[in-house]
Amino acid sequence: MASIIEGASLLILLGIAVPLKHVAGIPAAVAVMGPLHGLTFIAYVWLAVNVISGAKWSKSDAVRILLGAVLPFGGFFNARFIRQHELALASSTGGKAGHP
Q1: What's the N-to-C CA distance of the chain in angstroms?
Q2: Would 9 disulfide with which of 37, 53, 55, 98, CB 3.0-4.6 Å?
């Protein structure tokens, strides 16, 4: 869920707020969305690092999860990847996978 929120905030910032600032001369959109996206990004990275370290994910999976946070639409791809990883972990542990 955090990856979807972070991804959506990035798309709103890049797709709506930045064009409003540069095309329509409305800098208030970036002044609001910039810090909001910053908070969602920090929260996502913090959650990702905690989950990655606690669940002992591979280095390549960790890089993918963190790289997806800086790419447009990456958060949405990460959400699906995390869910698949979580389901695989749950099936391998008999349905007792922990959630952060």
Answers
A1: 11
A2: 37
Q: Is residue 64 part of a domain?
A: yes
- How buried is 91 (Cβ within 10 angstroms: 0-12 exposed, 13-18 middle, 19+ buried)? exposed
Q: Which residue has the tokens 């959506």?
A: 8
pLDDT band with cut points at 50, 70 and 90 for residue 66: confident
In a domain, 50, yes or no: yes
State pLDDT tens for residues 19-56: 999 999 999 999 999 999 999 999 999 988 888 888 77
Q: What's the pTM?
A: 0.76
Q: Quick check: is 97 in a domain?
A: no
Per the structure, the complete domain to which residue 81 belongs is given by 2-92
For the chain, the domain total comes to 1
Residue listed under structure tokens 């542990």: 93
Quote the CA–CA distance of 26 and 38 in Å, as a whole number. 19
